[in-house]
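Figure S4 source data
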Amino acid sequence: MDTKISRLRGRLFAVAAVASLVASVASCGPMARPDDAATSPAAAAGATAAPGTAAAPAHTSTSAPAPTPGKGPACPALRCTSVTITGDMLVHAQLWEQARADAPAAGATGLDFGPLLEGQRRYIEKSDLAICHQETPVAGAAGPFSAYPSFNVPPQIITAARRVGYQACTTASNHTIDRGTAGLVRTLDALDAAGLRHTGSYRTQADSQEVLILQTAAAKIAVIQASYGLNGQTPEQPWQVDMLDPEAMIAKARKARELGADIVLGAMHAGDEYSSTPNTQQRDVAHALVDSGQFTMVYGHHSHSVQPIEQYQGTWIVYGLGNAVTELSPSYVVNNEGLLVRAQFSRDAAGQWTASDLAWAPSVIVRGPYRWCSVAADAPQGPCAGAAADAATRQRTAAVVESMGAAAAGAHELLISKK
């Protein structure tokens, strides 16, 4: 991508976007609150640095829902809603062997990924909407399964995601067409069967032109997602996977607004693997999306590492959520870590929606057995990898998350046990 062109595309909208965002943020009240804000672990160390209401399709009525505070923190405005997002669902052989071992305890045969994801439930239940990222194509229920470099993973991970409370998943990644059109369609079929809405990859050209709009009690939330590449592979049709193009994403965001979306989320599958800083493409695309004035928040995954949170022109950008699930890497400690982010959006008297609260929880994957585990200061699941290791993960995550000024802008650690 020509990064200079991507910057120029967005700048035309900057002045109007900044004025609107500054006015709306001012009306939403303070970001941090005493009930669950904790002293930043990075600052303390001297570092510098299920479900809500059913989803509604895009063609449903766009009449405004009745005012409601929504789930999450106290609502500082007329209407609020909250969204939880997590990173890559990257299933390797160790994880499906764990799921096979966990199934008998539930009185089941086959594979059960429920215990792996169970720690996320408490967070998801406190949010109106939860969105995951299905990184890889899925096989049939009986396999054969394969992991890197050409994934074909058990579809039971999708069922488990729905059962723990997710309502939607994004699907555009560098692995989307690992198994060609058949794998792409099989994955979308599995998501549909589980009752999970999706966007990013498509069965038909008509589908690719639609916008995913999800309904909570308070708002209509659009999700627009794209990938930086496909590992050098070429899809049978160019419309099968959304590619990272700010102009195309902005056009889709405008369409979402025309369809009645109150909030528009932009999701980028991009970045340098195992890097703790966003690359030029990530920054340029994210800034262009914000500058357009069409996006309420931008977030990303792919790097398999936690990356910073930035407030740019009054809008939050979460550059990298790390891994939601993965096997343990002996070489890259950052691969084993992730970020769960909950954003509360509030509507002011003028009808403008902005993020009135942004909170994050650091996580780690542990094994023996394999589990997702929160290492937030309130330790909602108890010890994960041990006191010292958990503290190191929390400190490392906080230092990265806050390295672009997130804490000063109001982002804070999410202490779910205090809700």
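Figure S5 source data
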Amino acid sequence: MKESIVILAGGGPAPGINTVEGTIAKAFMAEGYRVLGLHGGYSGIFSASPNFIEFNFALADAIFNRGGSYLQMSRYKPTQEDFDRYFNLKFFQDNNIRLLVTIGGDDTASTANRIGKFLREKHYPVQNIHVPKTIDNDLPLPMNAPTFGYNSAKAEGTRIATTVYEDARTSGNWFIVSAMGRSAGHLAMGIGASCHYPMIIIPEMFNKTEITVDKILRLSISAIIKRRLRGIAYGGIIVSEGVFHMLSDEQLKETGIKFTYDDHGHPELGKISKAQLFNDMLEIKLKELGLKIKTRPVEIGYDIRCQQPIAYDLFYCSQLGAGVYELFKKGETGCMVFVDQIGTIRPLYLEDLQDPETGKIPPRLVDIDGDQAQVVYKHLLNYITPRDYEGARQYVPNPEDYDFYKILNWERD
């Protein structure tokens, strides 16, 4: 029987997954391998009847430049009981599988390592190579290399946010835009800076002070007042969803917004629009201040995950897919494929990236003190500074409380 490889995709979609799948299939089929694609992420490996397909060239060629994932994805994460009772070793044996290729984030990669170890214990060694993806751009790849999908998501998010900003200008309103990113603010920063939004709020900003609802609202109002002082009655505020996930339960309860709660009494943020949440909080605060300003919420999230990848990710993901074959032939396993900015392919071993205590890969955060972020905050945003205090008193009696640097406890240059 021909030797085979199997590909699966875990977590949520990102532009470029099909490019990776199609490129891997083309590369391995050209060398005589069967290429299997497993639907349902890891759930298929723990099923008596895995739902899988066999790639041919026509299929690989038809999907490589499409958005989404031809292989259905899943966030399924097996337990130890699943390994003990349901692992389908026969699937690997019957198909003579020599390589497991996983596409996903940290959890997907960690599970791949568990499967590799399990198969070795069963005396059926299989190489496993991981392709890291996330639109959040929060995996700590060397040389600040982006995760695939991020640039395509940023491009589509920028298109949406630009249209929204034009609506703000046309209607004289303010739009509250929320962007995905639970752990880091890369996407909100990239979109907001590309559109010259007057305020960008990300978790990393609060590196010298506790994050609170009050500070989020005062940063927003600081931008609104500054624009008014410049004779501009419209604008946009973009906020990373991670800001809300880092608020305490008490902070969320104090907003006055009605939440549903999980079994542990925590607000279920995943069930609501962060843009709507932010908009509702801001409306309450503006009303308290007597500021008559219309705000509208816009969520940027699911509409950017399955879009067609831009040229950057089409080429990048093609390199990653081909890189899987190169690492496989060298005997690499238990690693992620990495392609640097000059196209060099090399493995990244999870043990070098993981926290030794937790076993998890710590997220790559926006370097808030670096030039890239500081140029945005110093020169593109609009907010109250001491020179604006006198003029701002017509809108608030205490403009110093809306001073951007004082809110964040940052030092001025």
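The chain has a mean pLDDT of 92. The CA atoms of residues 38 and 52 lie 4 Å apart.
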